[in-house]
Please model this.
Amino acid sequence: MTLAVPADVISRLKAVLGEGGWSQDPDRLAPKLVEWRDRWSGTTPLLVLPRTTEEVAAVVALCAESATAITPQGGNTGLVGGQIPDGEILLSLERMRRVREVSVEDDVLVAEAGVTLAEAHEAAAAVGRRFPLSLASEGSATIGGLVSTNAGGVAVLRYGTMRQLVLGLEAVLPNGEIWNGLKHLRKDNTGYDLKQLLIGGEGTLGVVTAAALKLFPMLAGRAVAFAGLAGPADAVTLLARAKEATGGSVESFELIGRLGVELALRHIPGSREPLESRPPWYVLIEVASGEPGAAEAGLERLLEAGFEAGLVLDAAVAQTEAQAKAFWALRENQSAAQKSEGAAWKHDIAVPVSRIPQFLETAGAALTARWPGVRIDAFGHVGDGNIHYDILSPPGGDPAVHNGLRDQAAHVVHDIVASLGGSISAEHGLGTMKTAEAAAYKSPVELAALRAIRSALDPQRIMNPRVLF
Amino acid sequence: MTLAVPADVISRLKAVLGEGGWSQDPDRLAPKLVEWRDRWSGTTPLLVLPRTTEEVAAVVALCAESATAITPQGGNTGLVGGQIPDGEILLSLERMRRVREVSVEDDVLVAEAGVTLAEAHEAAAAVGRRFPLSLASEGSATIGGLVSTNAGGVAVLRYGTMRQLVLGLEAVLPNGEIWNGLKHLRKDNTGYDLKQLLIGGEGTLGVVTAAALKLFPMLAGRAVAFAGLAGPADAVTLLARAKEATGGSVESFELIGRLGVELALRHIPGSREPLESRPPWYVLIEVASGEPGAAEAGLERLLEAGFEAGLVLDAAVAQTEAQAKAFWALRENQSAAQKSEGAAWKHDIAVPVSRIPQFLETAGAALTARWPGVRIDAFGHVGDGNIHYDILSPPGGDPAVHNGLRDQAAHVVHDIVASLGGSISAEHGLGTMKTAEAAAYKSPVELAALRAIRSALDPQRIMNPRVLF
Model:
């Protein structure tokens, strides 16, 4: 579907935004029209670059008046195509990049949509606080996009996804009106929580222009270990013990298979074997505490108990910051390491934590039976039940052939996920990639409710029309 | 507004539910038609008592078909009148009281709507886990009501309100269809998060029939202290230090004024002075940790630093469980202690944490200037910015006179709250009591959006029609 935008709408949008507020320059547009892995590319008649919330409102109001569709875009780091226009007006928030406020007493940071996650981290650190959302693309991903996609990452186990980290929002609704919900409140029971619809709404219910984010104290004590395990079931058991032993101080508990470590060793310069014993599975554990020494003590106690119980085969605790970073690099570089191996079928799934072992076993058997030789790089967040389940072609396989099977493979994997009460998109959202598939797994009752809500707020369906239901 | 329900609807409802599934017996109905403090009473043509989700669905479908209004009711502990019918069908969930599932590996408990909070606590404890939501009425308050009102309580600082504690919901939507959203997932980014609308929806968007709730590890170490402070500003500063010093292990941080302690001493048998020095303000601090000794050490360190900084005037750490309970009783019995003093104007407000001192000063000055001699019992959750701001009549004042001024006083208090960016209902919800007032403080943009959502899901407005916008 490519939409024709009337010329007078284009010229009125230009007039509203003025010089520097829009572009039709192909070079300026190019990086915003291609998804970074090159899986989706698109077109737009006009890139609009509002600098203020009022300008966003003016753009949306004009589009609402003329039933013109809009695709909002943040840092263009999305993995499901939701930010790539196909003839819609492309609304970039890149010029809205002010940190409006940081308050230590309220533990809150108010950032505009175009502020990157890394910049938000810095602004919090400057006042001795921490914004805990953390993910690989944090140098480019922006607050508006992270809110709109309910981003997750590596600290969800302790701090939750974006949904738990937003205290208030400012947004332009599909009718072009500004909703100022930028409260600093920890509690507010005065009707439906409108911000919860915009969080994870993927830009279909409005444009997030600013967010009030929860800050947390810096934690003095931090300890990181790499542990070798016989299998994922032991990871699930060890995590339950870790939560008990540390009283909720586990920040991350990341699963990596032996293949994942091998890929990093092969393709990422500077990578080293984390453990001499080369076990079939690993977990990266990070514990943090405000009590001096507690993180280290808790992690030691956990690993000892794990050895005794036969859950932990081998383990190394990082002795220096550099070693901790090296451990983390093995995990963070999984996507980068895969790139050099050719094509991959990628899945971002969640199942109940207890069902991770069953998922890995069932999906692995189904895929290797149907496509012998495929290599499974499964890694992810045990505590969230969230596995990044990536399937590489057989060694030396033809990338084009592998890519051609992607949808079939996704169907196999997602059917298994659904049978285990899981989700086919744990943290990446649906975008244009998974919308149709997700609709097939949802109940008609839920779909009807979600569609009714959307129609109520955007009766003309101008906001990101190809995304969600 | 009293609604006449046609006789044939009544008889069809009776037929659907069968013997024991409904009542019109005045004695059976009486306790459900009066709010426990006697502030609201109502009427109903029929009490329906479904035992299963399917029966709830049949009731709602019949009501939808005939545009018959319904008021859902949980444990009837609400403080804003939202559970009291005024001619609507009264739908009680009291027979849906099964704990359907408890899973240690998934850290989840699935409870039906009629399960009390105390029963949920017990079911979690039976498997060595904890459900942390905690409030004074937990023996009567039920999961369905707690979800529908987004309940808070004394552990929100660390664990959040109900909104953060629900993994999934099962509900009957206003069209009578069952939505099965009882997932056990920690992450699921596949469209709008429908459960977030039902949480805090006060029964206006459907009837919650069951919830999947997050469990947490039991924490071995727990330490409780009562500290004396010069004023609320010092409480705010001390809390910020407490969060840093304990790395997020503060479970509760409750403010109480001297008047509150005096009321407890006067009216609650067994109460004792917590501190000999009788300071003007107190905080009750509870710290919990999985690391043995860490809670005690963290609390000691905090109090020492607080003394040195001049923030803490005096303090006592509970040496026994009985002493900890005695400290908590002073806080938990505030409402009970007030009862013996006659009428009270009660407010459940929230402001940004940093503005608590300003709120207390401004509101106190405004009220005592206008109504000399009124006594202010302010207590609540510092970390949530949530103050229960209760105003007693002057000593010996006429309760009827004091009650007659309630709305005027609320207006004074709530205007100040609004000017500070606060909420006129932090945790109790709006019910019939505060709906009109809240509408006056909300922006037209937000009200229009909330109303559009409600109309989309309940076009006939049959669900709790007098509550919310």
Remarks:
- Chain A touches chain B through 99 residues (CB under 8 Å).
- The mean pLDDT of chain A is 95.
- The longest strand of chain A covers residues 221-229.
- The radius of gyration of chain A is 23 Å.
